[in-house]
Amino acid sequence: MEKRSWAEPYKIKMVELLKMTTLEERKAAIKEAGFNTFLLKSEDVYIDLLTDSGVGAMSDQQWAGIMMGDEAYAGSRNFYHMRDTITEYYSYQFTVPTHQGRGAENILSQILIKDGDYVPGNMYFTTTRLHQEIAGGHFVDVIINEAHDPDSDHPFKGNVDIAKLDRLVNKVGAEKIPYVCIATCVNMAGGQPISLENLQAVRQWCDKHNVMLVHDMTRVAENAYFIQQRETGQQHKSVKEIVYEICALTDAATMSSKKDAMVNIGGFLAMNDATLYERACELVVVYEGLHTYGGMAGRDMEALAIGIRESVQDNHMQARIGQVAYLGKKLEDAGVPIVKPYGGHAIFLNAKAILPHIPQSQFPAQALAAALYVESGIRAMERGVVSAGRDAQTGENFMPKLELVRLTIPRRVYTQAHMDVTAESVIRVMKYASQVKGLKFTYEPKMLRFFMGRFEEVA
Ligand code: F0G
């Protein structure tokens, strides 16, 4: 096939200068940070691949929107622009703004989940599962088995195994399942998409059992791009059309706009049911702010409305996913064990395969992320046993099959040369991987321990 380049559909108008550090400085910094890349100072980081959340580069249009902020306490014009944009692009009729994704998860979980309920989902996400648990629910993983296998090259590893949903409903009954929670481009599976066909099957299952379908739409545009590229019969549609179609199959959505929509802060809960909207409005004023700003400034809602439009452009998505795949191919060609297919927002290193001498109880992915920082000042994130946390019932560590380091690519921020440097750094760490030491906790927070946990090297 003829090669199609992914060159960026934009040019650079402003740059942010980066500080370079020495090996000695980085060794001191990671020790000071308790071997947790979340605790590093951003200043000490060269290429920041911790997350794609809130770190995208806004466009000149978005920055112009920032100047158009209507900072009225109630009824800001930017809210109505954002709400109408959400209806136009994502189909949902009602929108409740929140400060970010987890604010929406909190409100939704409190409204819909009763003590002892079960919430099936296509793999867990850290904050999503925690809010379900705080509301009294149990998360049940219904993703296909291939999603837990880093070497499977299934094109839609985000798919739901309908037989797993059937088993759950047979065991607990539909009245114990308030909703099915489906993430598009499943983060913890490696940024892997769900197919339209599978989502339609989930929709049918929900209709049959009279269960709501909730959409974690944090990375819906990336998922839509994969559908366009990979799913039979979808090539003629635009990303924009597929995004709308995905959303229209679901009843409600939680959104962290810090990803797809390229704003620094913001999110929302959206739905079609007027009663659910009413109840969400009652709670948003308790936790976030009035129902027409919910924790966002007017200017942020304006930038978000513009970001939604930019996020569904085909050429944007081609460059976005193209850049991630460029890094993936460099690593794969060098024999680095990574999750396949390449993800939408990140390339995930298989820490179990890179550091086979470190048992999972000594946090190989945490150790690998720290080693990569020391090597070159690149900051990545652990997505393995530390992120998975402990079982709320038994107190035991979850031992996920996937023990990964995420090289997350912010949108429109880094260049191809940064990707080259990143690949070279990972390849260098591979050469002395056998000398990397396991870690143990010196401080373990009770919830979401990956954010602030501290470690030391095992002797
Ligand atoms: N759902 C998914 C799939 C996410 O990836 C995130 C955040 C959230 C919900 C929560 O949204 O951060 O705005 O409160 N993911 C970030 C990450 C933090 O780095 O993957 P939030």
What would the keywords be for this entry?
2 domains, Aspartate Aminotransferase, domain 1, binds ligand F0G, 459 residues, three-stranded antiparallel β-sheet, five-stranded mixed β-sheet, Aspartate Aminotransferase, domain 2
Topology:
Elements lengths: L22 H10 L14 E2 L11 H7 L10 H14 L3 E5 L2 H12 L5 E4 L4 H9 L3 E4 L20 H11 L6 E5 L12 H14 L2 E5 L3 H11 L8 H10 L3 E5 L10 E5 L2 H14 L10 H14 L2 H20 L12 E5 H4 L9 H13 L1 E2 L1 E3 L1 H4 L15 E5 L7 H16 L7 E5 L5 H4 L1 E4 L2
Helix pairs in contact: 1-14, 2-11, 3-11, 4-5, 4-10, 8-9, 12-16, 14-16
Ligand F0G binds next to helix 4 and helix 5.
Describe this structure in words.
This protein has 17 helices and 14 strands. It is an alpha/beta fold. It folds into 2 domains: 23-52 and 314-457, Aspartate Aminotransferase, domain 1 (Alpha-Beta Complex), CATH 3.90.1150; 60-311, Aspartate Aminotransferase, domain 2 (3-Layer(aba) Sandwich), CATH 3.40.640. The strands form 5 sheets. Strands 2-8-7-6-5 form a 5-stranded mixed β-sheet, with helices on both faces. Helix 4 (101-112) runs parallel beside helix 5, helix 8 crosses helix 9 and helix 12 packs parallel to helix 16 (416-431). It is globular, with a radius of gyration of 21 Å. The model has no long low-confidence stretch (mean pLDDT 97). The structure holds ligand F0G. Residues 51, 53, 100-102, 125, 127-128, 183, 187, 216, 218, 256, 258, 267 line the site of ligand F0G.
